Amino acid sequence: MTRVSDLTPFQKRITEKSKLKNSRIILSLDPTPSHDLKKFAMNSINQLQRHVCAVKINFHLILPFSATDLTETTELAHSHGLECIADIKLNDITNTNHIAIQYLMEMGFDAVIVNPLMGKAALKSAVKQTHEKNCGIIALTYMSHPGAREYYGAKVFNQRTGRIISMYKMFLAMAMDAKVDGIVVGANQSDILREISHVRRIPIFSPGIGIQGGRIDRAIKNGTDYFIVGRSIIASANPVKEARKFQRLAVPY
Ligand code: XMP
Q1: pTM for the complete prediction?
Q2: Pocket of ligand 1 (CB under 6 A)
Q3: Tell me, which fold does domain 4-249 have in CATH?
């Protein structure tokens, strides 16, 4: 178990918040375009904040929202004691990443999900930039959708060692080396999750719960630390009831 003194500021905050909220659920605020988006975001945070430790915001809101809308959303989430994660799976040259991350941090995001495909140097630079502002980077390692196998499971030639390895293993090594704050591994990728959780020393964030087939009880056994849940809560007839159900399964250690 990692000592509290070894945690990065983002890891420390999300650990504390999950204890305060008694929940390791991260709410994926993913409305469909037919929603009144601002109302949806604000109402969802107000209604569900007691059952989750963070909100994750994806293109569903990042594209249509203005900077003011996003800032108001992160401010509301913070006022309820939640962390805010930007899920843009960032993957560009260092200069572009830097500007995107700067905007996101200015709008109040505490962590940004990135794609390690950007390469080791760009990943390290993103980590340095966010850590200077006490924010964090979460790196994709094995995604939750069925097509993930085609790419994250592909074999690649590792130039440094001269060996053939799986892409996800290379991503994991890069993430550890860059000292990211967490990695994303699909809850429904049981074998991979189990394998990674045995060797990793960083928190695992898992989407793919519910609608994508993953189960919290199984993911806990396989090593997930934080559970990202979207449609199974927000698209249900009773989001508060569903969130409470997920929360009960995902209380902190
Ligand atoms: P659902 O509705 O399936 O939503 O609970 C899941 C949310 O998470 C995103 N997603 C991922 N994000 N790595 C990520 O960083 C993944 O492997 C992954 N799989 C799903 C998805 O876009 C939605 O916002």
Answers
A1: 0.96
A2: 28, 30, 58, 87, 89, 113, 140, 143-145, 184, 186, 207-212, 228-232
A3: TIM Barrel (3.20.20)
